[in-house]
Amino acid sequence: MGILAILQTVGSLLTGLGAAFVFLQFRQQNMQFVTEFEDGLTKEYREIVQDLPVKVRASEDVDWEQNKQDIYRYIDLCNEQIFLRQNGRVSKETWKSWQEGMESNIQEGVFNSGWENIKSNTDSFDELKRVEKEDWDTDPYHWENIRYGEKLWRWIMGRRRKRPF
């Protein structure tokens, strides 16, 4: 084996290592983006809840009509969060936390009466209806209505079904 062959082999190895490094950097950057994105949605939740009167947050008996706009915003945010998990845009840990919060909020007080009212008067919010129907114990990421291209994108971005995050 001549010096040229050795240099070519070393060059190929370094190129492979460089490509692997770029790929890992890309995934790390993507994970950072997901974290920032999730934090933004958490901030939106806090802003919605902050706008609600203390009585609503304390699950006291409150007329849902008086707080209809904020409750609707919360229900819409819940549905959006489910959609985002379904499309792999939020992590499993974040989804579990959000799902527990949805269950807790929607099953109590004014949120519950608001959700019942909204649910009976609209054909929207199918994702939230499904999570509730599955007894708040489901992961939309595993629902089987994702397009092939989205599955490929999940794989490229490192969000495989068996991934523990």
UniProtKB/TrEMBL annotation:
Recorded superkingdom: Archaea
Protein name: Uncharacterized protein
